[in-house]
């Protein structure tokens, strides 16, 4: 038998606000109502009376403070070493994971507070972890257009050998119109398969103008248009 709802007290209101706004665990109107044995509409009503609003979580890549200076130095170095006349020769490449069969609880994509700016990053940022149920799409872009996309199906392991043999080699065999392997300036990020010694050696042999790992800024998003 369903138990009668409890009457709201000031202590319950304070606990309700803490659970939704500053508590470490994620809560929704429903979970707070269940925890306090209240009606969900009562929780919403009390929060509205206190001007606490519901916001949709935002997706954002966080850049550690320790990496900001390293990123600035890499950007300044590229500005010094690559003249504007060479920009049309730049070739940006990257891969993107597309998750399949992943269930997202939309209730978990909400956060609560007086304004979005006052809500902590831990509460308002939604993290989307990579899973085995995903496919990878690889491609390259330049001022001349885009390369044919390479799609690796679900269940694969993206390592230095897969990246070199299944992504880089097909891309180099069919370079974008107007680009040559000996003059194109290739830019990639610091993913482990990009920075692997075998991949760096392969690019040094095939593309003399590629940007080496030491000159790439750490962490995404970087200045790759694909990011």
Structural class: alpha+beta
CATH architecture title of the largest domain: 2-Layer Sandwich
Q: Label the overall shape.
A: elongated
Low-confidence stretches: none
Radius of gyration: 25 Å
The residue-averaged pLDDT reads 78
CATH superfamily of the largest domain: Ribonuclease H-like superfamily/Ribonuclease H
| Strand percentage | 15-25%
Q: What is the third-level CATH name, the topology of the largest domain?
A: Nucleotidyltransferase, domain 5
Organism: Hypsibius exemplaris
GO molecular function, one term: nucleic acid binding
Protein name: Tc1-like transposase DDE domain-containing protein
Short précis:
With 227 residues, the protein is an alpha+beta fold. Helices cover 35% and strands 15% of the residues. The longest helix has 17 residues.
Explain this structure to me?
With 227 residues, the protein is α+β, with helices and mostly antiparallel strands. It has two domains: 10-50; 65-108 and 127-215, Ribonuclease H-like superfamily/Ribonuclease H (Nucleotidyltransferase, domain 5, 2-Layer Sandwich). 35% of the residues lie in helices and 15% in strands. The chain has eight helices and seven strands. It has helices at 10-21, 29-36, 40-49, 65-81, 121-124, 160-173, 192-195, 197-206; strands at 53-56, 90-99, 110-113, 134-142, 145-146, 150-152, 185-187. Strands 2, 4, 5, 6 and 7 form a five-stranded mixed beta sheet that branches. The protein has a two-stranded antiparallel sheet with strand order 1-3. α1 packs antiparallel against α2. The radius of gyration is 25 Å and the shape is elongated. The N and C termini lie far apart (54 Å). The mean pLDDT is 78.
């Amino acid at each position: 038998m369903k138990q009668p709802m409890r009457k709201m007290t000031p202590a319950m209101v304070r606990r309700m606000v803490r659970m939704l706004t500053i508590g470490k665990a994620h809560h929704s109107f429903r979970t707070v109502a269940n925890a306090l044995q209240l009606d969900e509409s009562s929780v919403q009503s009390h929060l509205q009376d206190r001007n606490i609003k519901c916001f949709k979580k935002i997706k954002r890549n966080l850049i550690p403070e320790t990496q900001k200076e390293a990123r600035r130095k890499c950007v300044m170095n590229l500005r010094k070493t690559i003249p504007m006349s060479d920009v049309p020769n730049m070739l940006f490449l990257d891969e993107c994971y597309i998750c399949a069969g992943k269930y997202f609880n939309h209730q978990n994509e909400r956060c609560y507070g007086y304004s979005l700016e006052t809500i902590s990053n831990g509460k308002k940022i939604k993290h989307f972890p990579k899973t085995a149920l995903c496919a990878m799409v690889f491609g390259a872009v330049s001022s001349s257009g885009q390369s044919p996309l390479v799609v690796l199906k679900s269940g694969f392991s993206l390592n230095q050998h897969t990246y070199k043999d299944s992504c880089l080699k097909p891309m180099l065999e069919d370079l974008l119109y107007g680009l040559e392997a000996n003059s194109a300036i290739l830019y990639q990020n610091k993913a482990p398969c990009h920075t692997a010694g075998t991949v760096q050696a392969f690019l040094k042999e095939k593309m003399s103008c590629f940007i080496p790992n030491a000159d790439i800024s750490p962490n995404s998003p970087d200045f790759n248009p694909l990011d």
